[in-house]
Here is the input.
Amino acid sequence: MSKKNVSAGRAAFLSAKKRRSIFINISRFSILILTIILWESLAHAGVIDSFIMSQPTRILRTILNWQNNNLPHHIGITFLETLIGFIAGATLGIFIAFVLWWSSFLAKIADPYLVVLNALPKIALGPVIIIWVGAGMQAVIVMALAISLIVTIMEMLSGFKNADPELQKMAKTFGANRLQIFLKIIFPFNLHTLFNCLKINIGLSLVGVIAGEFLVSRAGLGYLIVYGGQVFQMDLVMTSVIILAALAALLYQLIVLLEMAVMRAVKSK
Here is the structure.
């Protein structure tokens, strides 16, 4: 096959891939727009109760009147708590996974406890956490940490254990010590595992923050949801939920962009 045919075939493949990507994005946007239109139409027609379910125009008015509910402040509090809990959970989880990988003795001791803690509903620890660390932001952050930590440990430990054994053996024959093997082989081999874990944990951290705000907070989107439900301001509740969805999507996309930047840097070396 000539280079010309190969080039033409590759160009056709890239063109088809681009068209498919555009079609997927248009479909996503169309589903969102149609959902909003349907929601608004059903509310206007009285098919759904706009007092209970709210409607897009009422949510938009609530957002535009953000000064009445101090929305930026509550969004900032939830964002800060999520970020702190996420970073703490990821950092501590990777470190503990490294320690358990280093010592198979400790890993075997910790294994049943990790399984039990992973299955335990963390919301049940809410009252205990409040007693331990006190009510307020610290309790919310600890709740987010509790939800994301065990998942990080288990995912990263599994990745460390399953790294290429043949490559490790070859490194040992050249005199590499255990720390060098981890830094040069194990950890780079698990970059995809790390970012997949981060993508999961950013959502789990947000869940932990909202659960904590339900229990103790006087600020944040979780607090607004509880407050709106108590005073029957369902527009405020639905607005907070929509903002939470947007915040979750934003945080996830930031992880995706970070992954792309790291992978590009690794490939360029």
Summary: The mean pLDDT is 84. The radius of gyration is 24 Å.
